[in-house]
Amino acid sequence: MSRSLEYFALGLAFASVVPYIGEIIWGLGRPHKTTWFVWFCVNLVAFFVYRNAPHATNETSLMLYASAGIPFFIFLLSLWKGEGGTFSLREKASIAVACVGGVTWGLFGITTIGLLAHASAHFAGSTLTIEKAWRDPHSESLVSWGMSTVSWIIVCRVSPSWPYPESITTIYLSGINALVMGVLITRRISLWEKAVAP
Fold first, then answer.
1. Phi-psi category of 54—alpha, beta or left, where left has phi over 0 and alpha has psi -120 to 50?
2. Which domain, by its residues, includes 13?
3. What is the helix (H) or strand (E) element at residue 4, kind and residue range?
4. pLDDT tens readout for residues 37-87
5. What is the pTM of this model?
6. Which SS3 state, helix, strand or coil, does residue 2 take?
7. Between the CA atoms of 184, 190, 196 and 198, what dihedral angle is there, to the nearest 10 degrees?
8. Number of domains into which the chain is organized
9. Within 10 Å of residue 158's Cβ, how many Cβ atoms?
10. CA-CA distance, 106 to 37, in Å (whole number)?
11. With left for phi above 0 and alpha for psi between -120 and 50, is residue 87 left, alpha or beta?
């Protein structure tokens, strides 16, 4: 059962990219360049750290590979039709925090300190997209974020067999995806209510 769920989560993770790419190509979605660059770098470290974890499976490694490969592909698309990447003070701060977190995680590996450093590094890049989603909720694909959230929640359902602290990463990624999805839903409802208000 767990193996089937892992395959389903992996397929859902890849499928979630399809509507996201479609919206970017059609000019509806505008990914944040710095966010996706940070996510690619941080998740690439995650792949190398986790692939040799004693409780990791082939499916888990594929999921982690997807979590690094997908951000890299979206980053390339963001160079074409994204926003950000101006190296503003906030972007420089996000990159700096991500670098410190990434190096710390690389040094400490799968430990509480290392995984908290990973979460900090990833969240540093996430803040830029969260702010953008709040400002312009139609610049992100709600369908894609919803599918991605479900895929990571499924991984969380499978990963309780992993002892602490290995499961920190999957719990965090589930939470950050759900946060972005929640911001998109909340802001879209708010804008809709304003639009129909007399």
1. alpha
2. 2-196
3. helix 2-15
4. 888 887 777 777 666 665 555 555 666 666 678 888 898 999 888 888 777
5. 0.81
6. helix
7. -170
8. 1
9. 22
10. 18
11. left
